[in-house]
Amino acid sequence: DIVMTQTPLSLSVAPGQPASISCQSSESLRDRDGKTYLFWYMQKPGQSPQVLIYEVSTRFSGMPDRFIGSGSETDFKLTISRVEAEDVGVYYCMQSKLVPYTFGQGTKLEIK
Amino acid sequence: QVHLQESGLGLVKPSETLSLNCAVSGDSISKGHWWGWLRQPPGKWPQWIAEIYHSGSPIYNPSLKSRATISVDTSKNQISLTLTSVTAADTAVYYCARMALDFTAFDIWGQGTLVTVSS
Protein backbone atom coordinates (compact mmCIF):
# COMPACT_ATOMS: atom_id res chain seq x y z
CA ASP A 1 0.00 0.00 0.00
CA ILE A 2 1.10 3.59 -0.59
CA VAL A 3 1.74 5.23 2.80
CA MET A 4 0.77 8.88 3.19
CA THR A 5 2.57 10.84 5.93
CA GLN A 6 1.39 14.26 7.02
CA THR A 7 3.16 16.90 9.08
CA PRO A 8 2.43 18.49 11.42
CA LEU A 9 -0.34 16.52 13.10
CA SER A 10 -1.70 19.67 14.69
CA LEU A 11 -1.51 23.37 13.99
CA SER A 12 -2.69 26.46 15.87
CA VAL A 13 -2.90 29.59 13.75
CA ALA A 14 -4.18 33.10 14.40
CA PRO A 15 -6.88 34.43 12.06
CA GLY A 16 -5.41 36.12 9.01
CA GLN A 17 -2.12 34.21 9.26
CA PRO A 18 -0.97 31.56 6.80
CA ALA A 19 -0.95 27.83 7.49
CA SER A 20 0.88 25.06 5.75
CA ILE A 21 0.45 21.28 5.83
CA SER A 22 2.86 18.82 4.22
CA CYS A 23 2.08 15.38 2.84
CA GLN A 24 4.63 12.83 1.68
CA SER A 25 3.81 9.65 -0.20
CA SER A 26 5.88 6.45 -0.10
CA GLU A 27 6.03 6.39 -3.90
CA SER A 28 5.40 8.78 -6.75
CA LEU A 29 1.75 9.63 -7.32
CA ARG A 30 2.35 10.64 -10.93
CA ASP A 31 0.82 8.08 -13.27
CA ARG A 32 1.61 7.19 -16.88
CA ASP A 33 -1.33 9.30 -18.03
CA GLY A 34 0.54 12.36 -16.74
CA LYS A 35 -1.87 13.02 -13.89
CA THR A 36 -0.83 13.10 -10.25
CA TYR A 37 -3.39 11.42 -8.02
CA LEU A 38 -3.10 13.53 -4.88
CA PHE A 39 -6.13 15.08 -3.21
CA TRP A 40 -6.85 17.19 -0.14
CA TYR A 41 -9.91 16.81 2.04
CA MET A 42 -11.20 18.90 4.92
CA GLN A 43 -13.37 17.47 7.68
CA LYS A 44 -15.14 20.06 9.80
CA PRO A 45 -16.18 18.98 13.32
CA GLY A 46 -19.09 16.54 13.19
CA GLN A 47 -19.18 16.49 9.38
CA SER A 48 -18.14 14.21 6.55
CA PRO A 49 -14.92 14.91 4.69
CA GLN A 50 -15.24 17.27 1.73
CA VAL A 51 -12.86 17.52 -1.18
CA LEU A 52 -10.83 20.74 -1.30
CA ILE A 53 -8.21 20.17 -3.95
CA TYR A 54 -7.87 17.55 -6.65
CA GLU A 55 -4.87 16.42 -8.68
CA VAL A 56 -2.44 18.41 -6.52
CA SER A 57 -3.55 21.95 -7.23
CA THR A 58 -7.05 22.31 -8.69
CA ARG A 59 -9.58 23.71 -6.28
CA PHE A 60 -12.90 21.88 -6.17
CA SER A 61 -15.97 23.84 -7.15
CA GLY A 62 -16.92 26.40 -4.51
CA MET A 63 -13.72 26.13 -2.48
CA PRO A 64 -12.19 29.51 -1.53
CA ASP A 65 -9.05 30.64 -3.33
CA ARG A 66 -7.15 30.94 -0.05
CA PHE A 67 -6.65 27.16 -0.29
CA ILE A 68 -3.62 26.43 -2.46
CA GLY A 69 -2.23 23.01 -3.33
CA SER A 70 1.25 22.42 -4.64
CA GLY A 71 3.91 19.75 -5.06
CA SER A 72 4.88 16.87 -7.28
CA GLU A 73 5.88 13.20 -7.31
CA THR A 74 6.05 12.39 -3.56
CA ASP A 75 6.00 15.76 -1.79
CA PHE A 76 2.92 17.93 -1.53
CA LYS A 77 1.70 20.91 0.41
CA LEU A 78 -1.61 22.53 1.28
CA THR A 79 -1.34 26.21 2.09
CA ILE A 80 -4.09 28.37 3.53
CA SER A 81 -3.03 31.89 2.66
CA ARG A 82 -5.07 33.61 5.40
CA VAL A 83 -6.75 31.36 7.94
CA GLU A 84 -10.35 32.08 8.87
CA ALA A 85 -12.36 30.78 11.81
CA GLU A 86 -14.41 28.53 9.53
CA ASP A 87 -11.25 26.65 8.50
CA VAL A 88 -11.18 24.77 11.82
CA GLY A 89 -11.11 21.03 11.28
CA VAL A 90 -8.91 18.14 10.20
CA TYR A 91 -7.18 18.11 6.83
CA TYR A 92 -6.29 14.86 5.04
CA CYS A 93 -4.27 14.13 1.96
CA MET A 94 -5.34 11.11 -0.07
CA GLN A 95 -3.90 9.18 -3.00
CA SER A 96 -5.89 7.31 -5.62
CA LYS A 97 -3.08 6.29 -7.96
CA LEU A 98 -3.20 2.73 -6.65
CA VAL A 99 -5.75 0.55 -4.90
CA PRO A 100 -6.22 0.67 -1.98
CA TYR A 101 -6.70 4.41 -1.89
CA THR A 102 -5.01 5.67 1.27
CA PHE A 103 -5.24 8.74 3.47
CA GLY A 104 -2.74 10.57 5.62
CA GLN A 105 -3.20 10.59 9.41
CA GLY A 106 -4.70 14.04 9.32
CA THR A 107 -3.67 17.50 10.51
CA LYS A 108 -5.90 19.22 13.05
CA LEU A 109 -6.15 22.96 12.52
CA GLU A 110 -7.15 25.13 15.47
CA ILE A 111 -7.59 28.87 15.62
CA LYS A 112 -5.64 30.85 18.23
CA GLN B 1 -28.86 18.33 -5.23
CA VAL B 2 -27.34 14.91 -4.70
CA HIS B 3 -27.89 13.33 -1.28
CA LEU B 4 -26.60 10.06 0.12
CA GLN B 5 -28.15 8.51 3.22
CA GLU B 6 -26.68 5.52 5.02
CA SER B 7 -28.81 3.17 7.09
CA GLY B 8 -28.29 -0.01 9.06
CA LEU B 9 -27.94 -1.42 12.53
CA GLY B 10 -25.74 0.64 14.82
CA LEU B 11 -24.72 -2.27 17.05
CA VAL B 12 -23.39 -5.58 15.79
CA LYS B 13 -22.08 -8.48 17.85
CA PRO B 14 -18.57 -9.85 17.30
CA SER B 15 -18.38 -12.58 14.61
CA GLU B 16 -21.69 -11.46 13.10
CA THR B 17 -22.35 -9.63 9.81
CA LEU B 18 -22.58 -5.86 9.36
CA SER B 19 -25.08 -4.74 6.72
CA LEU B 20 -25.52 -1.20 5.47
CA ASN B 21 -27.55 0.47 2.73
CA CYS B 22 -27.03 3.82 1.06
CA ALA B 23 -30.00 5.51 -0.60
CA VAL B 24 -29.06 7.94 -3.36
CA SER B 25 -31.34 10.84 -4.25
CA GLY B 26 -30.87 13.63 -6.76
CA ASP B 27 -28.81 11.42 -9.09
CA SER B 28 -29.16 8.06 -10.78
CA ILE B 29 -26.60 5.46 -9.83
CA SER B 30 -26.82 4.22 -13.43
CA LYS B 31 -25.59 7.56 -14.77
CA GLY B 32 -21.86 6.86 -14.94
CA HIS B 33 -20.34 7.40 -11.53
CA TRP B 34 -18.58 4.83 -9.40
CA TRP B 35 -19.97 4.51 -5.87
CA GLY B 36 -18.07 3.51 -2.79
CA TRP B 37 -17.89 2.81 0.92
CA LEU B 38 -15.33 4.20 3.32
CA ARG B 39 -15.06 4.04 7.09
CA GLN B 40 -13.43 6.11 9.81
CA PRO B 41 -12.61 4.55 13.20
CA PRO B 42 -13.09 6.93 16.13
CA GLY B 43 -10.31 9.52 16.21
CA LYS B 44 -8.60 8.11 13.11
CA TRP B 45 -8.40 8.81 9.40
CA PRO B 46 -10.71 7.45 6.69
CA GLN B 47 -10.15 4.01 5.16
CA TRP B 48 -11.38 3.10 1.70
CA ILE B 49 -13.34 -0.17 1.70
CA ALA B 50 -14.67 -0.77 -1.82
CA GLU B 51 -16.30 0.78 -4.86
CA ILE B 52 -18.58 -0.38 -7.63
CA TYR B 53 -19.95 0.72 -10.99
CA HIS B 54 -23.68 0.45 -11.68
CA SER B 55 -23.11 -2.53 -13.97
CA GLY B 56 -21.00 -4.35 -11.38
CA SER B 57 -17.21 -4.73 -11.40
CA PRO B 58 -16.52 -4.20 -7.70
CA ILE B 59 -13.07 -3.27 -6.45
CA TYR B 60 -12.07 -4.03 -2.88
CA ASN B 61 -9.44 -3.04 -0.37
CA PRO B 62 -7.32 -6.21 -0.25
CA SER B 63 -7.19 -6.00 3.54
CA LEU B 64 -10.97 -6.48 3.64
CA LYS B 65 -11.71 -8.29 0.39
CA SER B 66 -12.50 -11.67 1.84
CA ARG B 67 -15.06 -10.18 4.26
CA ALA B 68 -16.57 -7.28 2.34
CA THR B 69 -19.22 -7.34 -0.36
CA ILE B 70 -20.44 -4.23 -2.16
CA SER B 71 -23.51 -4.35 -4.37
CA VAL B 72 -25.77 -2.05 -6.31
CA ASP B 73 -29.55 -2.10 -6.73
CA THR B 74 -30.48 0.14 -9.65
CA SER B 75 -34.22 -0.38 -9.09
CA LYS B 76 -33.91 1.12 -5.61
CA ASN B 77 -31.12 3.55 -6.55
CA GLN B 78 -29.03 2.31 -3.68
CA ILE B 79 -25.74 0.64 -2.87
CA SER B 80 -25.08 -1.81 -0.07
CA LEU B 81 -22.22 -3.16 1.99
CA THR B 82 -21.91 -6.32 4.01
CA LEU B 83 -18.94 -7.14 6.19
CA THR B 84 -18.73 -10.60 7.72
CA SER B 85 -17.03 -11.87 10.87
CA VAL B 86 -16.77 -8.43 12.44
CA THR B 87 -14.55 -7.62 15.40
CA ALA B 88 -14.10 -4.56 17.59
CA ALA B 89 -11.60 -3.27 15.01
CA ASP B 90 -14.53 -2.79 12.61
CA THR B 91 -16.12 -0.19 14.88
CA ALA B 92 -16.25 3.01 12.82
CA VAL B 93 -18.39 5.61 11.13
CA TYR B 94 -19.27 4.13 7.74
CA TYR B 95 -19.73 6.49 4.79
CA CYS B 96 -21.07 5.91 1.33
CA ALA B 97 -19.74 8.27 -1.30
CA ARG B 98 -19.86 9.13 -4.98
CA MET B 99 -16.73 9.10 -7.13
CA ALA B 100 -16.36 12.25 -9.20
CA LEU B 101 -16.49 12.05 -12.99
CA ASP B 102 -13.61 14.49 -13.52
CA PHE B 103 -11.16 13.01 -11.05
CA THR B 104 -10.54 9.84 -9.08
CA ALA B 105 -11.75 10.86 -5.64
CA PHE B 106 -15.06 10.99 -3.81
CA ASP B 107 -16.81 14.33 -4.31
CA ILE B 108 -20.04 13.68 -2.41
CA TRP B 109 -20.30 11.80 0.90
CA GLY B 110 -23.20 10.73 3.05
CA GLN B 111 -23.40 11.95 6.63
CA GLY B 112 -22.10 8.59 7.86
CA THR B 113 -23.47 6.04 10.28
CA LEU B 114 -21.72 4.80 13.41
CA VAL B 115 -21.45 1.04 13.71
CA THR B 116 -20.23 -0.35 17.02
CA VAL B 117 -19.10 -3.95 17.33
CA SER B 118 -19.72 -5.15 20.85
CA SER B 119 -21.36 -7.99 22.70
Subunit arrangement of the protein: heterodimer
Shape annotation of chain A? globular
Q: Please write the string of helix (H) and strand (E) elements of chain B.
A: EEEEEEEEEEE
* Unreliable runs of chain B: none
User: How many DSSP H or I helices of chain B?
Assistant: 0
Task: Give the DSSP E fraction of chain A (strand runs of 2 or more residues).
Answer: over 45%
Through-space gap between termini of chain B: 39 Å
Helix count of chain A equals 0
Give the averaged pLDDT of chain A, no decimals: 97
Q: Order of helices and strands of chain A, N to C?
A: EEEEEEEEEEE
- Largest β sheet strand count, sense and barrel closure of chain A: 7 strands, mixed
Give a description of the structure.
The complex is a heterodimer of chains A (112) and B (119). Chain A is mainly β and 112 residues long. Chain A contains no helices and eleven strands. In chain A, the strands form two sheets. In chain A, strands 2, 4, 5, 6, 9, 10 and 11 form a seven-stranded mixed beta sheet that branches. Chain A is globular. The mean pLDDT of chain A is 97. Chain B has 119 residues and is an all-beta fold. Chain B is built from no helices and eleven strands. In chain B, strands 2, 4, 5, 6, 9, 10 and 11 form a seven-stranded mixed beta sheet that branches. Chain B has a four-stranded antiparallel beta sheet with strand order 1-3-8-7, with no helix packed on it. The radius of gyration of chain B is 13 Å and the shape is globular.
